[in-house]
Specification:
CATH topology of the largest domain: D-Maltodextrin-Binding Protein, domain 2
Number of helices: 14
Distance between the termini: 39 Å
Number of domains: 2
CATH architecture of the largest domain: 3-Layer(aba) Sandwich
Shape: globular
Radius of gyration: 23 Å
CATH superfamily of the largest domain: Periplasmic binding protein-like II
Order of helices and strands: HEHEHEHEEHEHEHEHEEHEEHHHHH
Helix content: 40-55%
Structural class: alpha+beta
CATH class of the largest domain: Alpha Beta
């Protein structure tokens, strides 16, 4: 009888452990296609071959809220699928290194540059060209005497970085940032391309925009020691920061709540091993958002075609 009780108790513990290992995983929904594509693939892995349950929190795209939610560890937000570094150095310092409440995988490399359409490349090929008042006037759409460039979404750290760069380059007397959502910007870019109108904008890789349009990078000075001295958390961040060189390739991570290691250790283990390439992500973006295929279908198809790789992430 004592042995039966012990076995029953042990079975109860094991069942509780199994239930905990299958706790539902909540994936944030940042507002750019790369993050959305990665989130779909992660959800498909958990819901498919792992036999678990994952949900994408549609509209959960405020990054400070996402990182704070993962830090809490209560399961309200578990994953940020596309953490760009060093754009979110403050979150890294506070949660990854400081509280140790957020874990990250091995990153893929992303790039960040400023672009014009290829049909503008004969007029704008480098930062030096932007110093010309006649060039800036070509990009002035509201008649205020300043050319406009898209710096990004209001919630993005990179949006501050581009304003710092334009100030440091001495361009803020000729140019002003247009700070709107990525969807609003892309609609405007499509209209500009249709009419062959000037556009100056920040963008990154991987992204389907490079498949949809012929883009030309605006060349910036090479990097040197001390060329990037940025404090995005300062109240007067624009005044105290300097940045007068090209952005180094970014390390981009899947970030996840350390609490998953106890709440869902199988998923935590998978996330610690998962690793993408920029080319893979760009392929997902094109299929999901350019070709407008069902994102879940694209993710499941990719998993099926790469089952050995995915099994390695799951099983270690």
């Amino acid at each position: 009888m004592k042995g039966l009780i012990t076995a029953t108790a042990l079975g109860t513990v094991l069942m509780a452990g199994a239930a905990a290992a299958q706790e539902k995983v909540m994936i944030s929904d940042p507002s750019w296609n790369g993050a959305r594509a990665i989130g779909q693939v992660i959800a498909a892995i958990i819901n498919g071959p792992m036999g678990g349950e994952a949900e994408i929190l549609t509209g959960m795209n405020q990054q400070p809220v996402i990182y704070a939610g993962m830090d809490k560890g209560d399961g309200s937000i578990d994953i940020q699928p596309d953490m760009w570094m060093p754009n979110w150095q403050s979150a890294w310092d506070q949660y990854v290194d400081g509280n140790q409440s957020i874990r990250v995988n091995q990153p893929y490399k992303g790039t960040s540059n400023i672009y014009v359409p290829a049909y503008m490349a004969d007029k704008v090929s480098s930062i030096e060209d932007l110093r010309n008042p006649e060039v800036a006037a070509m990009f002035d759409t509201d008649g205020d005497g300043l050319g406009e460039y898209w710096a990004g979404d209001v919630t993005w750290a990179s949006t501050k970085r581009w304003q710092i760069k334009f100030k440091t380059y001495g361009l803020d007397q000729l140019w002003e940032p247009n700070i709107v959502s990525a969807d609003t910007f892309k609609a405007g870019l499509a209209a500009a391309y249709a009419a062959s109108q000037p556009q100056l904008f920040y963008y990154w890789t991987p992204e389907a925009l490079h498949v949809q349009y012929d883009l030309s990078i605006v060349e910036e000075p090479e990097r040197y020691d001390g060329c990037e001295d940025v404090d995005l958390d300062a109240e007067n961040w624009l005044e105290v920061s300097e940045f007068d060189c090209v952005i180094a390739p970014n390390d981009v991570h899947v970030a996840y709540s350390a609490s998953l290691e106890s709440r869902n250790p199988a998923v935590a283990g998978m996330l610690s091993r998962i690793q993408f390439t920029g080319d893979e992500i760009n392929g997902w973006i094109v299929e999901m958002f350019t070709n407008k295929r069902d994102p879940q279908e694209v993710a499941e198809e990719w998993i099926e075609d790469n089952q050995a790789l995915v099994d390695g992430w799951i099983n270690g």
